């Protein structure tokens, strides 16, 4: 699919993997709308790339509907959707306090919050965007649109404390093929990237020695991933009309350990 001149929406586009993808799409000539909760950063990035910012909470039908309405008013119906909005936490399923002996379990509202954002939020944007794409005329090969989702290597080798995060990202992986099959008759492709350890704002609060240790754990190249490398793969998934229904790890061949 040609990117230049095409309308695109990037969720979580104000920072990290989403920001890199929004910038790469704009550099390739796309008309980009950024969905994010961070108004200050989102508006700044949108201004730099000549795009539009939409304050969107992917947990809300109303907010997502309003975001798509604003994006489409500015750029027309999107043919490209990249889902990067997401979050995580680290809580054991059940644990014992080493000092007091108190036994705790994972608060279910905290578990549900991760599922709502990472999994249901992703599907909400897919469903609403693809419904809009159905109204478009088809292009080469009958193509109407391309969707790229963000999972994580934790979908396949989650660590201790990642039950909610791994479940949410495993759900994104699990729905990739059936959603691609749902939409294939309409010329809409769906793929998912499973990033490894990337140098995103999530890493900014970590001590340098911790970041160095994480980088050293990557087999090759021994460094954290660059968000531009994620963006590069996302754009290839969009451009290549034969890329469909795939879940692709982007991780320097790392396989996460127990901890």
Automatic annotation (TrEMBL):
Q: What's this protein's name?
A: SDR family NAD(P)-dependent oxidoreductase
* Protein keywords: Oxidoreductase
According to the UniProt entry, its GO molecular function terms are: oxidoreductase activity
Q: Which organism is it from?
A: Gimibacter soli
Give the similarity note.
Belongs to the short-chain dehydrogenases/reductases (SDR) family.
- Domain of life per record: Bacteria
Query: One short Pfam family name for this protein?
Result: adh_short
Entry's InterPro entries? NAD(P)-bd_dom_sf, Sc_DH/Rdtase_CS, SDR_fam
Q: Which residues form a coiled coil?
A: none
Query: Mind telling me which residue stretches traverse the membrane in this protein?
Result: none
Keyword Oxidoreductase annotated: yes
Which range is the signal sequence, renumbered to this chain? Answer: none
